[in-house]
Amino acid sequence: MQNRGGIILSNTETVPGKRIVEFYGVVTGNTVRAKHLGRDIMAGLKNIVGGELVGYTELLQESRNEATDRMVEQARSMGANAVVNVRFATSSIAQGAAELFAYGTGVRVE
Predict the structure, then answer these.
(1) Collapsing DSSP states into helix, strand and coil, what is residue 43?
(2) How confident is the model at residue 40 (pLDDT cuts 50, 70, 90)?
(3) E strands, 35-77, where?
(4) Fold of 2-109
(5) What pLDDT is recorded for position 10?
(6) Structure pTM?
């Protein structure tokens, strides 16, 4: 469970210690990111010697944060103070570009 800008985020169907009093529906946030040439070069070198692709890890974390922030803003605009069943999905949009999609159910808890 996480609190993000006053909105509680939970990857379960409930918020521990709270009661859901209103459902607002599905809330979403997404971002589409393209690979970076510099990161691609470093990733190619890492593929030879092995190890974590730090540039891509950072890119994924930035994307996850941006998509989550957009989901939280949508929840807030609906009047929700929590999002339950938070999930992430990815998809390829074009060669070298991918979407990261965050979604859940906006609710009001007490």
Answers:
(1) helix
(2) low
(3) none
(4) Translation Initiation Factor IF3 (3.30.110)
(5) 97
(6) 0.84
